[in-house]
Amino acid sequence: MASTVPFSPAKVQMLKATNCHGHAAFGSCFAVPRTGPKQRSLAVRVSSEQEAAAAVRAPSGRSIEECEADAVAGRFPAPAAFVRPKAPDGTPEIRPLDMAKRPRRNRRSPALRAAFQETTISPANLVLPLFIHEGEEDAPIGAMPGCFRLGWQHGLLDEVYKARDVGVNSFVLFPKVPDALKSPTGVEAYNDNGLVPRTIRLLKDKFPDIIVYTDVALDPYSSDGHDGIVREDGVILNDETVYQLCKQAVSQARAGADVVSPSDMMDGRVGAIRSALDAEGFNDVSIMSYTAKYASSFYGPFREALDSNPRFGDKKTYQMNPANYREALLETAADEAEGADILLVKPGLPYLDIIRLLRDNSALPIAAYQVSSLPGP
Questions:
Q1: Which residues, 6+ apart, have CB-to-CB distance to 114 below 8 Å?
Q2: I need a labelling partner for 280 at 20 to 30 A (CA). Which of 1, 17, 82, 238 fits?
Q3: pLDDT the model gives residue 362
């Protein structure tokens, strides 16, 4: 039966490129390019190792012209007979189906499957959330075993170094702000010397080539724990909040942020932030909008990490209703029109249908936030 036999110096004397001007030869001057003096293994289909050994001929020393003359005259050894691999006994003999398209052709070998793979996930696709605080020591997060609030000057740098070592180069910052700095209007959010801007500057100094994402929302800075300014009757003020978010985004861009990420779900905030960034000369800072952010109990551990639980009520007047599917299309259209560069769905795993919906209806990159209380896929 025919087989594929590897040739190596241990089995068969390899052909040295002494004929045909620097090419290895098989049979009568069959040209195989060589990359250097090191001999390379070949694999040929033959009926047996003995026949393979007999088929190898020593170099003849002929010139290129002589080799070409052989080619013109057709003086080549007869090719080995093709033997089709046998099917197991009992396989029915049939006429092949009359099919012009056979998708399995592109799956028949690992090399072909790799060549035509549509989706590739690598560490370069990941963004690592980093929880930071003012302390020097890392502080464990009770609701997320194994995760820590990182000291912004020490533990943070170690974490980024380790992540880069495995190929992760994108990071998003989430601050745990001291209670004394929180206020009803979240003014600490745009303090140019606040925790986040200081951290951005440090990261960009130590790791200039990383991508720094930031969170644009008031809840870590609000004494009420909401993403926006709360009126005395409990209403979240939209336009006044957007005004604060614009100042926050500009402050982050000024510190060196590459991508600002409004997670607040206020109406019109993407367009307003885009205009504010452009007006300050930050035309190259991207916006990743939390386009479809659904109200969810999955956010509990995350809010504990930032100490940003709402002091009263919930966030259902601005975060989306989990029962709404088509509403995501409205948010997508608005964010695209207002200048978003990336669209994000949160939570990720429970809303795979929404990720697919956005992918089918937008040419922008689609991101998903796998929140802290969900298992990995």
A1: none
A2: 238
A3: 96
Q: How confident is the model at residue 269 (pLDDT cuts 50, 70, 90)?
A: very high
Residue 119 CA to residue 135 CA, distance in Å, equals 41
Q: Is 327 exposed, middle or buried (0-12, 13-18, 19+ CB in 10 A)?
A: middle
Please list the residues that pair with 43 across neighbouring strands.
6
The tokens for 20 are: 């045909």
Domain residue extents for the chain: 3-84, 126-368
Instruction: Please count the residues of the chain.
Output: 377
Q: Identify whether the C-beta of residue 336 lies closer than 8 Å to the C-beta of residue 364.
A: yes
Cβ neighbour number for residue 103 with a 10 Å cutoff = 7
Least confident of 200-204, 276-280, 316-320: 316-320
170 CB contacts (<8 Å, ≥6 apart)? 124, 126, 127, 128, 210, 211, 213
Instruction: Give catalytic status of residue 315 as yes or no.
Output: no
pLDDT tens-digit readout, 360-370: 999 999 999 98
Q: Report the topology of domain 126-368.
A: TIM Barrel (3.20.20)
What proportion of the chain, given as a percentage, has pLDDT over 70? 83
Give pLDDT tens digits for 214-242. 999 999 999 998 999 999 999 999 999 99
346 flagged as catalytic: yes
Cβ distance 269 to 262 under 8 Å?
yes
